[in-house]
Design a protein that fits this description.
Two copies of one chain form a homodimer.
Chain A lengths: L26 E3 L10 H6 L2 H5 L10 H11 L6 E4 L2 H12 L6 E4 L5 H9 L3 E4 L19 E5 L11 H10 L5 E4 L20 E6 L12 E5 L1 H14 L6 H12 L1 H24 L3 E2 L6 E5 L5 H10 L2 E3 L11 E4 L3 H24 L4
Parallel strand pairs in A: 1-11, 3-4, 3-5, 5-6, 6-7
Antiparallel strand pairs in A: 2-8, 7-8, 9-10, 10-12
Helix pairs in contact in A: 3-8, 4-5, 4-7
Chain lengths: 365, 365
């Protein structure tokens, strides 16, 4: 920290992204990436000619991409705003709709960036604990008096989802504030709130190309809502970074959004692999939360979360462990290809057998 | 504007990017893009295999790119931080080094985003007017008492540059504050302050791949300074958008940075074309400021700036006109290929001849 850093930032705790060790090849089940490549249309669109056009600024209005998203979600282009990853969309929304007088309400166990952004932007946080079983009780969000609310649905890292009708009640009950629904993982089995946008001017839905469209490395997210909310987000964007999305990502996003068949096919395979994975974990005695996302959240009585994470890493498999209250014994396991999950099960069997043998070998007197 | 927009943003005036009309093909001399494509190494690096890897998050530490930049500028990787365009680097720097108590000092005629960011971040602005001839008097920056200073060198839209020794005196005189030197245009003939970084812990130099490395559409900038200043910027980055740069841009940037020959060759051609352009404009009676950038700033007594801009657009040539105090009669003309500049001169000749004929035809009594 330099002596020049603003006092306001000196206590800020940045977000820690999932590790990306370079020491060996790992089976990466730790950052919720899609195991399948993006639509082949994206690679076609990004060719040498496209690269040569990089000398020119990208379209700050992102017109063609907006058109593709609007068509897919039955919205108008002015109801959509793309971002440099949905993280940027969410940051813009917090900048627009929160301030010292308008706190941000969110769950205690959810995406870690909400808390970090509130810190960076000096927004008061209103943390609403999840229930004991990690479910979210919508009633606790019914009378927040104009606070801005953000709900990840499905939630991370639990994977648990609310039906759209339950979110709708929250949106209705908070007409004086903006309700942001972070649907990063919705395409793997959740129910989207996008159809509610035409009914509620205070609803903002944020999605991403990172997961269901296999473009985590392209950095592309999008917010959807009333034209007025989107105009507010654009006011922030054009005051911060008008050219926030590069040309190649615009091409990748537009083509991937149009390739509906490929999208449905890959999401379907991931969802099916998730179900098999959950069953296999349950067979081995794991508690597994009911996930609608491209990951599962699981724990076993046989081994602490941190120790199991370390043992898997030793065997070349990365999963995500959060050393945080309530979830320190759980692991978030991204869904890979079936063969990756098979190797995971083999590794778990070996690790847990080893652990129980070690336990049995302890002197009992 | 929605009723939900934070009161703090309601008077914010966003930046207006240069126009990108789609109605016809224009000769684009309005956004300071490079007329030559990026290094062919970039197109080679971005191939189908790279696109297929987009399913994976980009490296948040940007390690390989940092290594390439550090090697080129004789710095350590921890003295460099890449951004999603240098706009993002500058925004991070203002977030880190300014606040309600630490104003931002900058010239009245300079890059328009400084003022916009100060508005977005609620930072007081200390505007220091340029001299009558648009030169910057360094003495006016000698005792700013810990304010953060940003100087575009060469300046935009004037193109005028200070020698590094003059900037050094400002950095020395303001040891209690950070001095940011925005060197977006330095590679076309300016003198960089990068060699001063090892002497001054309060100096931050920001450059971009957009201009001299022909990658405006890839969105890539970088800040260079002491490891402490860079750590502060990373604290902001990891609190806002840890994956701020996408995989393909990382590849394009790394390869373009290593292709020194191509860089020198294209910068040399642009600088030579600038000199010819300035001479041709002077021949036609234009006042042309002495530019070290990839654009010239020029005016003529024969026609108002706005009218000349419109007449050129009618002829299919876009230049930039700022309807702002002190510079409303000037045009900023980006340097294109020699044939583009030739067409510009033909258009100017036709427009000015037409104008003087129309003037002559006015009844004089």
């Amino acid at each position: 920290m330099s002596k020049f850093l603003s006092k306001r930032l000196q206590n800020l705790e940045p977000y820690t992204p999932g590790e990306q060790p370079q020491d060996q090849q790992y089976i990466k089940l730790n950052t919720n990436e899609n195991p399948y490549p993006p639509s082949p249309w994206a690679a076609e669109a990004i060719n040498a000619a496209a690269v040569n056009q990089l000398r020119l600024y990208s379209d700050p209005t992102c017109e063609k991409l907006l058109q593709a998203i609007a068509t897919r979600y039955e919205l108008q282009p002015e109801q959509v705003m793309p971002g440099n990853g949905s993280d940027e969309n969410l940051f813009f929304a917090l900048r627009a709709f929160c301030d010292e007088d308008t706190p941000l309400a969110y769950a205690d166990v959810t995406y870690g960036c909400y808390k970090v952004w509130a810190g960076l932007l000096h927004i008061p946080s209103h943390v609403i604990p999840l229930e004991k079983d990690f479910s979210l009780d919508p009633k606790k969000y019914y009378s927040l008096g104009g606070e801005t609310i953000v709900i990840a649905n499905p939630n991370a890292p639990t994977g648990m989802a609310l039906p759209a009708a339950e979110i709708e009640k929250i949106v209705q009950a908070n007409a004086g504030g903006v309700v942001i629904v972070d649907e990063a993982y919705v395409d793997f089995g959740g129910e989207s709130c996008v159809p509610l946008i035409k009914k509620y001017p205070n609803l903002l839905v944020v999605q991403t190309f990172s997961k269901s469209r296999s473009l985590a490395g392209a950095r592309l997210g999008f917010a959807m809502g009333s034209a007025e909310l989107i105009a507010d987000l654009n006011r922030v964007k054009f005051s911060l970074n008008p050219y926030n999305i590069n040309r190649l990502t615009l091409l990748a996003g537009e083509t991937a959004m149009r390739d509906e068949d490929y999208f449905r096919r890959t999401c379907g395979i991931v969802a099916a692999t998730r179900e098999t994975t959950a069953q296999e974990l349950a067979k081995r005695g794991f508690a597994v939360l009911p996930s609608k996302a491209n990951f599962v959240f699981a724990r076993t009585d046989k081994m602490a979360g941190g120790a199991l994470y370390a043992a898997l890493k030793e065997k070349g498999i990365l999963v995500r462990h959060f050393d945080a209250p309530r979830i320190a014994d759980w692991l978030r396991i991204s869904i890979g290809k079936p063969e990756d999950m098979h190797k995971l099960m083999e590794a778990l069997d070996a690790i847990l057998e080893n652990a129980s043998r070690a336990n049995a070998a302890q002197p009992t007197d």
